[in-house]
Structures are given as C-alpha cells and as structure tokens.
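Internal QA ticket QA-208
Title: Verify multi-chain structure generation after dependency bump
Assignee: T.L.

Test input:
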Amino acid sequence: MTTTASTPGHPFLDAHAATIEEASEALRTRSYYSRYPGSPSPRVYGEGSAEAGKQAHDAHLGRAFTALDDQPSTGERVGDEVSPYGPTLGVTYPVLDLDVALPAARAAMRAWRDAGPRVRAAVCVEMLERLNKRSFEVANAVMHTSGQPFVMSFQAGGPEAQDRALEAIVAGLAEMERIPASVTWEKPAKGDPIRMQKDYTVIGRGVGLVIGCNTFPTWNGYPGLFASLVTGNAVVVKPHPRAILPLAITVAVCREVLAEAGFDKALVQLAPDRDGGTLAKDIALRDEVAIVDYTGGPGFGAWLETEAVAAGKLVYTEKAGVNTIVLDSTDALKPMLGNLAFSLSLYSGQMCTAPQNVYAPKGGIDTDEGQLSFDELADRLATAVSRFTGDDAKAVEVLGATVNDQVRANIAAIGEIAAEGEGRVVLEPRRITHPAFPDAVVYAPGIVAVDVRHEDVYTEERFGPVSFLIATESTEQSLAQLADTVKEHGAMTASVYSTSEDVLEQAREAAADGGVALSENLLGQVFVNQTAAFSDLHGTGANPAANAAYTDSAFVANRFRVITSRRHV
Amino acid sequence: MTTTASTPGHPFLDAHAATIEEASEALRTRSYYSRYPGSPSPRVYGEGSAEAGKQAHDAHLGRAFTALDDQPSTGERVGDEVSPYGPTLGVTYPVLDLDVALPAARAAMRAWRDAGPRVRAAVCVEMLERLNKRSFEVANAVMHTSGQPFVMSFQAGGPEAQDRALEAIVAGLAEMERIPASVTWEKPAKGDPIRMQKDYTVIGRGVGLVIGCNTFPTWNGYPGLFASLVTGNAVVVKPHPRAILPLAITVAVCREVLAEAGFDKALVQLAPDRDGGTLAKDIALRDEVAIVDYTGGPGFGAWLETEAVAAGKLVYTEKAGVNTIVLDSTDALKPMLGNLAFSLSLYSGQMCTAPQNVYAPKGGIDTDEGQLSFDELADRLATAVSRFTGDDAKAVEVLGATVNDQVRANIAAIGEIAAEGEGRVVLEPRRITHPAFPDAVVYAPGIVAVDVRHEDVYTEERFGPVSFLIATESTEQSLAQLADTVKEHGAMTASVYSTSEDVLEQAREAAADGGVALSENLLGQVFVNQTAAFSDLHGTGANPAANAAYTDSAFVANRFRVITSRRHV
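Actual output:
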C-alpha cells in the first residue's frame, strides 16, 4: 500500500492542525474547551446568519432533497417528516441502493486508510467547520424534527454536537497514534544486534452504521459518525424516519468535503427509511457492516446488543433509563429548586439525561429556610416549576414541543400513574399554547408524589414531562434506591443535594456502585442534564442505559485494527 | 468512596515505578524492551536455580496442590494431567465453589478500585517479579502439560509470558490514565467563570474469566489475566483441564502478593475443571462475570462470540487459523530454507503462529542458486527440514512432544490428506524416540505438495506438524490466496519472501486486506511464529483467527468504565 501515515501537504492538514492540537490537549486534561461557540448571537455568527440559516432550511421544505441524488439509489424516495410544532416538512430523500452503496463504501476505505490518521482527522474537522457555518440551517431542521425549542436546537444540534464530534475525532486520533507509524527495533544479540523495521498501518473495521434518534439527531449521531470515520471506516447514516433532515444536511456536507479532499463520497452515505421500516436491521446484518452506533428505544437496542453482536458487529448503544436525584439537605433552597425546575422543564423532560425520580426522606429535609416536610418540599418544587413555566411565551422557549404520541400518552396518564402508585399529583402537567405554532402540543411538567415501596411505578421510564418525588425512610434508603434502580434499569445521570460531606461521600459510593455519573449540589447555570464535551463523559457504559460513553477510549479504540509489517534492516 | 487515585506510599509503588516507566515508554515507542531475561542460564537466573525450579515442580507431583486450599471450595478435587512426555502428574486441585467465590470476587473489587490504577499496576508487577523467580518451576509445569521442549517452556512459559503480562499492565495503565483523577474545569461566563471540580474514578466491569489453553497456558493466559486485573476487575482463571499446574502456580503467586499488599485474595481465583466439563460455559454466563478471555478451539470460541456476547459479556478470543507463507524469490535460499525449517519444526507446528500453507508459483522461484522449479523447491524444503531435525537428541529440544490425539491423527492422516488433494507427500512426518521420555510421541514435520485448486484440503487448520506447499499460477495468485484464505479462515501470521520491492508492496497490500501481520524475508534468528512484546502485536483482531490482539488499546480500554462526580468550587 502506498502508506503515507500523514500525507504531508494535504491542504486541510495545516488548516486544522491548531484545532486538533487544542482539542487533543483539552481531552488530555479534561479542562474547559469549546471550538464552536454556543451563542446564536449575530456578534458571534455574523449579522444575518440566523435569517440566512432559516431561509436555507425553509428552502428544503416541500421538495426533493437533491443534494444526495448522487448516492446510488433504488429510484424511490421517502420522507414523511412532520414538525412537532405542526407543519409538514414535505421533504423527500432518495432511497439508498444497499447492494451498490455498501460495496462502494467498503471499496472507498482503501484510499481513506492510506491517507493516514492525521489526514482523516483534518478532513473530519473540515466537515465540522462547514457544519458549523450551517448551524442555523441545522438548528431549524433539528427544531422541526425533534420539537426542541429553538435556542436548544441551535446549541445542542449545532455547536455542541460539533464539539462532541471534534472530541470523538481527537479521541480516535489519540488512540490511533498510540502506535507509531514506524519503528526501528533493535534487540541486543551475540555479535550484531538484530535490527528490524516495523511499520504499523491502522485499518478500519468495515462500514459503520449510525442509527439516529428522533430527539437529538445530530448530537447523538455525530460521535459515532466521526469516531468511525476518523478511524478509517466508511459510514452509513440511517436517520430516524421523523428526523431525517438534520442528518441529510450533515451527510451532504461530509460528502462535499470528501470530494474536495480527493476521497470517495461513498465514505459517508444516508440511508433514509419510511416510518416502521426495517432498514436499520437489514443494514446492521449486512456483511459489509462492522460497527453499529445506536441511540433510541430499548427494544431495538436490546436486539442490537444480542442479535447484532452475535453476528459479530461491534455495537454501541444509548437506550433509556431512569435518571435520579437524591435530596438530603441544602443551604440554598431557592437556587436548588430553581435548578431542579429548569432540569425538569428543559425540552419537557425529553432529554435522555432529564431527571425522572427525585428521592427525599419522608421526614423532610433540612434547608436554609428551616426544616421542610416532605409535603412542603413537594409543594415548593411544584411551585418552582409552575413559576418557571408560568409565562407561556417564555415557557415554550424552554419546553419545546412534545415529540410523539408516547410522550403525550405519558402526560395524559399522570392521574392513573399516581393512582397506581397510591400517590398524588402534586403538579398537573399544564398544556400551553405556543404563540407561533398553534398545532404544537406543549406541556409544562407534571410531578407525582409516591412512596418508595411503589417501585413498579417509578422504575419504568416515563419519557417526557412526568417525574416522581419519592418518599423514602431516609437518605440512606434514597441512595440505596439510586444504586439499585440504576443497576437494574439504567440511568444517564444522577444528582444529589446535601450539606453533609458524609452524605456526599456515600452518594459518590452509590453512584460508583450503580455505575452512573454524579452531579453534586448543582446551582446556577449548570444542570444535571447537560454534559460538556472534552470534560464530562455522556453516559458511562456501566449500567443498562448505555453500553458506551461519549467519549472515552473504549468508544474509539475498537473501531480500528493495526496491521504490522516487519523486515530486517 | 475513599478514592486515593494513587495511594501514595504503598510499598510496591516505589519498588516498581521504574519498571512501569520503562515498560510504558517501550510500549509508546514500540522499541525493543524486555524486563524478564529469556536465557535460562545460571549466569542470569543464578546458580542452582534450574535445579531448584525442577525440584519445586517435582514436589507438586503425585499430591494435592494445597496452596489454593484457602479458596472457597466444594470440597471436591480434580486433576488428571498427564505429561505429553509420558508421566502422569497426579496433582489434584480444589474445585471452586462458584456461589461463594464469585460474590467474593465481586466484593473484593471495591478496595481494589479505591487503590487506584498506579497501585494496581504496581501490585501486578510484584506478581510478575515473583513469577519470574519461579520461572524454572513454571517452565517444568508448562513442559509437562503442553509438551513444549524445555527451553521453549522456559522462555515462552516464563519470561516471555511475563513480558506480555507487563505489556498488558502498562497498556491498561496508559488507558486508565488517559483520564486524569481530577480536574478543575473553568468555563468563561458573564461575570465570574463557572468553576467545577470533576473527579474521575476508574471502575472495573465485573469478574474477568480467563480460559486457558493446553499449549500455552501462561503465555496466552497472562495478557487477559493482567489486563483485567490492572483495570480494576477480579479474575477467575479456568485452566485447560490438561494444563492446570502452570496456572495454579500463577494464581497462588497472585494471591500471595494480594494478601501481602493488603487486598482480598478473592481478586484472583482458580477454577479447575475435569476434562469434558462445562465449567467454562457455566462461569461465562454467571451474572458476576463481565469479561471473558479465551484461547482455544474454534468451537467454544464461536459459542463465546455468539452466546456469551449476546448475554452481555465482553469477549476476547484467540481461536485458530491457517498461517500463510508466500514464496516469490530470494537472494538467500539456504538461510531462507533454514528459517522455514525452524518455523515448521518448532514445537511440531503446535503454535498458533506456526505456518501451515506455503504458496509458490508452479513455474518455480528465482534464487541466488538460480531458478528452482516447484518440485526442486519442494525437495529443498523437505531436505532442509529433514536435516534440521535429523539428530534425534537435538530435534526433541525443538520439536517437543505432540500434545493430543488430534495432532497425532493429523500426522497419521497425511497420506489421506495428500490423496484427497491429488498431491504428494514431499516429506513424511518422522517419528522420533525421545531419549529421556520414551512414551513421548514426537514427530518431525511432514509436508504435502498440492495444487492451489484443492482449497478444501489446505484451508482447514491441521494443527500440528503437517504443512502444505501449494502450487499457484503466479505470485499474484499466491497473494490473492493469502488475502482470501485469511479473510475467510483466519490467520495469526503471514510471511513473504521476495527480492522484488513491488511484490513486497503487493504483499503488504494483501496482508492489510486480509487483516494479518506480515513478516518479510525473515532470516537468521527471527521467525514468523514469534512476536516480541511491546513491539509486535500478537494477532490483529481483524480476521477470524482472533477478535483481539496482544496488546493494543482495544484489548484493554473496554475493561473498565469511568465514573465522574462533579461539583461547584
């Protein structure tokens, strides 16, 4: 092979060397770093960029998405996206011809391999730079497929997704560069030493399949996409049928960059499917496919974790869980309630990281406003959420729209759920009319108070704005429940409020035992549902909610292999 | 948790800091490094050490192995080992009580976790230092379970296994230390920056099960054992029923060190089984078990790769394959033939890395002794092997003894095999009487010449001293066969001889395509069946012979998880 481990002179290499160096250093130290600014302000992204992005998004609507018409296609088109805010998107996408596309993807990997890790990383960063320029267009697409409020669509769907992608790129690069491209090995021996030259070539595993989700098509899709790509694999992106557009734009950008960089566009392809189709399963079992990244419901996730792995595929999943907060005591009651209200309200609890179960002792908690009984705590929390979501026009910018019927069914069932748990609804979910999108189904969160013994009720994931305040015998029991429920049902996040260092220590123990990351006494602008690229891991892979984390070395190290060739010198 | 990421002051920390640093540096650079000398000379290991080791081994024979009697046991004992050299070992081992042992292993992991990566690495190195001192004892145990010749038993079973273990330890340490123990994260914000302290705790996945093989109980067992242990897991070692003693000694040493270091011995336990038992399967499916390392036949390997992975276990396998040599041309015919003769003879082809299939063009090959026809090449190779193994007393020190009936059956069937492939036996396997062990079944290698079209005959693994010289249309076809057979049937090694840089380049391409490491024009004291720790990867994980490599980052990075706790500062 014409291995040029770093192909000096590739135009993107110099352009992105500094970014790769900064991001790599941030990953090493886990210090604060962000390449792509989170503020949608015109001072950051330029005057008129928001409007231009909106126009670019609107230009997709009601027509064929032609930027991918150079993909091998069966000739059919699919696309039934309807915005959770109401409007039908009316975009159609070409159906991928797998029998042409997958062999083409496999064949494209050779030149991609020969380019070497550094060039691949630079090409991937170029993709992010261009995606960043299209953040407003992607934000509108994310908003009108996921139902996220606009600012969140922009931040999580644009720059934060791009930062997570950059993190995956440099994490992959670091692992590939753990092994040098070449070494002269010299073993002492009687007489002359034995000298060998050894060359090490990183090869991808095969085609990576990225299965996108409805709620965070880019944020959850990019880590797997870029982790597989940078490590030498081709990627097929199978978006959620109701959230195709953000990933279609993404794939089009990736292909444009690949072509400009002198590589085969077949390295990144989109495989859209109709709602209820079996394409994800079909692709996952194809011989060409070696890696699957999945975010979505536990049913298909479990299938991947049993059937696809048994078929020899490397599978990374993020499914579902019951995120947990333990309230023990606080010296900042109002800020704590404000922080909780935000976490419960943001995107109407439709984040995989949103808290569902809040444990507090029956005897109440100590606060800076004195001892609060359990019922007083329930009322204060309900009031905090009500106030935070009291202004409809402001509230919709936090809540977004409900994404699907399951979420709406969970909301509608809150009374039943409370009855089933012999509990009480301490806060009814409040229907809100969106001032701009009257068809959007928007709800402020509801809260159910139940006793700890009704485990069946609160250990099921209730995706959306229904959460539980659970009365326990003691904080000790709360922490035991945290560990046990996480071990059994999974969780992406856990959080604790306590003024006692002993309790915090026990909470760390419980979190480690359950295998979930812990946030302690969060106040102000840091929320349990948010993780920062380059510093916080998203998920742990240590509990049933997800078998992997963004982005640790386990997420990238297995996506490639190393082939040695050795000879005397 | 009382997390002390590096528990300063642990006595083994200082003792092994330099070793860990040197070995880590060697792994980074892939340069030559060996901690444990391969020479069994008294000048290296001390006067009388060989004799003392032999005595220590002999002292185990014919009695209960009591050093593990502090394990939780069912009260039964097993042990039917018979040396491939003839004598019955007569050692019995306590049967592990899984219902006590596995929960104990799990419980022991907490303090092991809290010790932190550095202390774990130092404790593991202490185990190796003590195993090194017992290399002669282990060598005798390896010899009389595997049938390896003594010097090989010493080198591969002792210091080289210890070096591979050290490599796994520092590879695991490097991955664990990719994430710092703690960081202060500071995000710029309006007004004061947001400051968070984030602590990262490495946690093991669960109990690691190491399933040993008959031929290389320590060399193939140590990487998984120490990779799992250093990353915070407990380990249960399930040795091959015919090769228990080397791993029993190993486990006893590990437990002795654990106890001295202040840890629970339950972190390393031996689970011996009777021949034909199902213990490996039973343990693999236990809830406490998270990781399985396996070396052995493809049948059980395939079960692990389908059933155990579907049950959520992380599985690392090394199974079987057809190792390949391509002969194109040489300017050093005699040294080449000498090198091949050694590779074919060493341990009678019972290494997983031993070549089986040698391809050469029908038209013959160019050499420094002129053009050699295919038949002349066959005769020269046969002669080289015959001469190399001509002196019985010397030959047995290279060949060792055949390890099992399957190997002997393959030898006996050589005529049938040749007939099946319409080929000819160019070298009959020669039965050799071992001067010291008359009951040992020792054979010098046999070679069958066949045409490339008889793929069914030579693509089946014929474990032991039966190899094929395969006549192809051209070197191009030889290389295509290399890539295709490796992709389909797997291989641990591949090798090429050519004076043409073009052919070598094509061979690298074929090896990368097949996913196998390549050795080019090996002569002298470097053999295709041998890999050097810290530099050569053993296997690639990129073809069906093995799903993992010793030791790349993929082999270690997934054995642990990282739990974050974060709070405001």
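Spot checks passed. Residues 1-7 of chain A have pLDDT under 50 and may be disordered.
Status: verified.
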